[in-house]
Amino acid sequence: MANNPDIQQKLHEHLSDFDEKNKNMTLEQLNELTFLDQCIKENLRISPPVANIVRIVGQDTLLDGHLVPKNLLSLTFVHAIHHDEEIYPDPEVFDPSRFEPENFAKIPPGAFIAFGDGPRHCIGDRLAILESKIIFSNIIKKFRVELVDEQELRLKIDLLTKPEIPLKFRIIPR
Questions:
Q1: Residue 49 backbone phi and psi in degrees, to 5
Q2: pLDDT band for position 56 (50/70/90)?
Q3: In this predicted model, what pLDDT tens digit does every residue of 123-132 receive, in sequence order?
Q4: Cα gap 92→70, rounded to integer Å
Q5: How far is CA 102 from CA 12, 106, 107, in A?
Q6: Taking a C-beta distance cutoff of 8 angstroms, is the pair 40, 129 a contact?
Q7: CA 95, 86, 31 angle in degrees (round to 5)?
Q8: What residues have CB less than 8 Å from 133, skipping those under 6 apart?
Q9: Is 129 in a helix, a strand, or coil?
Q10: Would you give the end-to-end CA distance of the chain in angstroms?
Q11: How do residues 27-52 score in pLDDT, each as one tens digit?
């Protein structure tokens, strides 16, 4: 958000309008914060928390005419999927509109896997999104977040995705 002040301002306005209508935030009301949800998903797309998903193939499987043998170690590189230009044009650009309902419907199944997919899908994904909504909404409503210096987000991809160097922010009261 610090790299995208226009989007941050739009989110602030979205949250302010919402606050005027809703004094006590309920779970249903949090779920109505669609633009906040789109921003969080775009953040997870650009920087997925888990960079790789490793599994052991459970049975011989035919995939695009190739035999994938049982017990083969399979690696899904989430970051590469989330930055595939055929699925996400201009993948380095922060664009929450990718997750508007009509656009999200066009994303192929398995192309947004910030919390995994299938039977091993993270059971805590809803809690993580809910916590993110609460934290981000409280920060953006009260503060403007800016980078101290112009910084390029370079990710260190290990078990978890994290910045290569610490990012420095300025938090300015609104």
A1: -60, -40
A2: very high
A3: 999 999 999 9
A4: 36
A5: 23, 7, 10
A6: yes
A7: 40
A8: 30, 33, 36, 37, 40
A9: helix
A10: 15
A11: 888 888 899 999 999 999 999 988 88
